[in-house]
Design brief:
Length: 69
């Protein structure tokens, strides 16, 4: 079961919810089903200096603006 993050359009509450295939999530604050699914951040473990891999998870070359030196 994936965990999704939602924002309620009625009250603005942001929450996470385990969602099964046929489930309809509801806001735990107000009970509304008028929700927006948010894009959640995720992380990966990448060893710095691994052959063929960048130390930056968001690009392949390690040269984008989000890469740390």
């Amino acid at each position: 079961m994936p965990i999704f993050e939602f924002r309620c359009r009625h009250c603005g509450q942001v929450f996470e919810c385990l969602v099964r295939k046929n489930d309809v999530p509801v806001c735990p604050e107000c009970g509304s089903q008028d929700l927006t699914k948010l894009i959640s951040m995720f992380s990966t473990n990448v060893r710095k200096g691994s052959a063929g891999q960048s130390s930056c998870a968001s690009c392949s070359g390690g040269t984008c603006s989000t890469c740390k030196s």
